[in-house]
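Researcher: Let's continue the batch. This sequence belongs to TonB-dependent receptor, and it's 927 residues. Same format as the previous ones, please.
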Amino acid sequence: MKRILLFFLIIIASYSSLNATTLSGFVQDKDTGEPLIGATVEVKLSGEKKYAIVGLDGSYVIKNVPVGKHLVEVSFVGYSKEIMEVEFVNGNVVKKNFELISELSDLTEFVLSASMIKGSEMQARNLERSSPNTLNIISKRAIELSPDITVANIVQRVSGLSIERNANGDPQHAIVRGMDKRYNYTLINGVKIPSPDNKNRYIPLDIFPAQLLERLEVSKSLNASMEGDAIGGAVNLVMKDAPEEFMLEGDVQLGYNQINMDRGFYTYDRSPINRRSPYQQFGADYFAETSDFPTQNMILQNVMPLPDVIGSLTYGDRFLKNKLGVMLGGSFQNSYRGVDSQWYRVGLDNFGSNRPTLQRLQERESSTQQQRYAIHSKLDYNINENHILKFYYGNYQLNDFRVRDMLDTDTEGRNFSVTEGNGILTYITRFTSRFQNIQTLNPSGEHKLSNNFIIDWNAVASIAKSESPDDGNFIRNGELANFEELPQNIERRNNRRWENNTDRDLTLYLNFTYSPKVINDETQVKFGGMYRDKERESFFNRYIFDPFNPAFQIQEVHWETFEDVNFQLLNPRGGVSDPLNFESFERIAAGYVTTKWDIFNTEIHAGVRVEMTEQGYSLRVAQQNVNPDSSQNYLDLLPSLSFKHRLNPKTNIRASYYKALARPGFHEIVPYRMSEDDGFDESGNPGLNRVRANNFDIRWEHFPTLTEQIFLGAFVKDIKDPIEYTLVRDRVFSGPLSLRPNNFGDALNWGVEADFIKYFRRIGVRMNYTYTNSRITTTKITRRREDPNDESSQLVQVMEDQTRPLQGQADHIGNLSIMYKSEKTDIQLAAVYTGERIEFVSPFLDNDHWSKPITQLDFSFDQRINKFLTLFVRVNNILDSPYELFIKSPLAREGALFPYQNNPEETMVRIDRFGQSYRVGLRFKRN
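Model: Same format as before. Here are the structure tokens for TonB-dependent receptor:
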């Protein structure tokens, strides 16, 4: 009986298949050709529903459609429906392509072709193809599907880019093609902004929330109309623009970090913190007392934090008969980050082996509450078809509230022993509040004076601020005896300091574009210039405290918490004589001319830029043996030339050359020295020179469809006077080694890149790979015996040249993202690989600090609830990948036992672990 039933089922299935067919094809925008991913194709049947959702490549497939004539309806949000009668014949595959018309049919052709695709993958690929520069773009759509919440997270998805992490383990700065962050600059909507960094000119990218971006552009080559201080490249944040119709979108997210679940979260009471020091409050003649310094903000608390909260909202529309466009956006992020670290302070062997020694072990537990606020507004007003005015205002705030609780063990101490559990201990708890802010105001305009002459301008006023009020250390000493910690005593020279700085920019850009219609309509001459006036002020004040009577400062006998300790203030007027109190300025005047020619399917851009720089500083308090005022002037001629040859409508080959520079940071040329308990001391270098480089680039690019790409490229950078930080003993300041910026002769950096994006119906693949090789030769110190055969001979220092990679340059960088898309579900698994690179350059031979290769794996899941709402889940750092620094040399004391030293062929210097983070959210869109 079962066999008979099975036979009939097979016959019925066979008959049904013979009387059914398949419908397949593509759906796209009629005007732009953009695949309408997510559109619905439905065959109208009585009593049955047959439909498909358009896939990532714009295709659809509907199987088992009954034979006969049926209506097929195609629909997509913002487009007019298309209904067509289709005849289905037995066993045949019917192919039908559909082109939908936007409901904004009253708009001009320009609007339909340019603005309907804002933030899409098609727009990103089109901009890459048409750009005169070597350009890579991450679209708004790609950002939405990624697990990234800040711009700093996004940049590591671009080919050739890696990231530098901050103390919390979060990405902060971009390294472009192996070039350190100092060799790149950041733009907002194509114009420069100042930095809130207290020492340097580069922008911390983690201050910008990802939700407000329309796209992220990375330009890896320059033309004469661009500012010339980007040897590595330029990162341009294109913020959301005014739409062509009503738009309201946003998201709400909750999250948690695994490390907080494992060990809790360290925090402190921020309410009593004084934003200004006693010196600032009461004047230079005021003698501060211990009662001027609150104590509640120096008491450590361990709590289970609330969930992370992230949200954004953007609104846009057009008014006054579409003349006025408005975009308003806001973002808020409150997160709780943690990192566990083991960090060794290393030295050099005193007996001539030139191997590292371990001086101190610092075991740290850090917790940081981060608050990001952002306000974004853009207006545009079309006076008429020839004149348009624009206005942009952005306000970006990042607050960090960090606690770092550290146990410091003297590993060279008289009784240090891992096996017997003995050692001299120092306990340091640091409480840091930091407030960073960037504000920029940018009115601009474009004026078409005739059919072949256009003027555009930008007037930019920006200010960046950073404050670190009442940054305090609570230092104790103790001892480990037979694996037991003895009661702690209060250490001397506890300190509390106030730092703040401002960076103010006033910039005017003016450009003229003339189309003489020589040879053809594509010929163009562009010329113009810019002027920037930049001023920076830096304030630093430190108060130092000793226990009033060290003999009566025993834990659990004389004190329990910080507020119980009886301190005396050693410097009641503070330490404002420090050279970190300075003013600096920079004035840049630039002019350029560039031409565009299009002949024999080749687009040629040739130009030259001239930049004149005046840079200097002034110390507020003169120091002995230090010049209190100094300035430098220099002029740079920066030619550029690029070719883009169109092999066919889908394929280009481009080549470019440009000369660029990198100016020293404002703080780097100030003659200062600063002690840092986080690591080595730091010092400035007034003799630091600017960096110059000749840059060559070639890339073959193919665009199989409007959303896919294949790139193969190579680059070479010939660099003169590269700046790197190295450990030196300064001739002016005595004391230990300090990290100091220096110029190092010449360097060569070259590499190859590959970038691939391919969409199948349900599956999408993005991958890129960059190999970078740089070489620089510098002089290193090696200690050895005067007579290598006589161990009793004197130790001497010998200078020896060593060739190594540039600081921060990773040999291998790769990204791989695999996406799956169904009717209502999007899934993405993204991996980022960064190879080993030098993090710190040592003055001693073979003692540089390298970071180990690291792979980060992230996961995204989106579930569409309806046409307005999407539920999503994000998991970051699935593998809990550690950040590790090491020296490629074994320890001087072979066989000695030290914690975390597991490989006898190398010396581990630092290990950071950040844990996984989890988020769930709801995104909404209404058009």
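Researcher: Any comment?
Model: Residues 2-100 form a domain with the Immunoglobulin-like fold (CATH 2.60.40.10).
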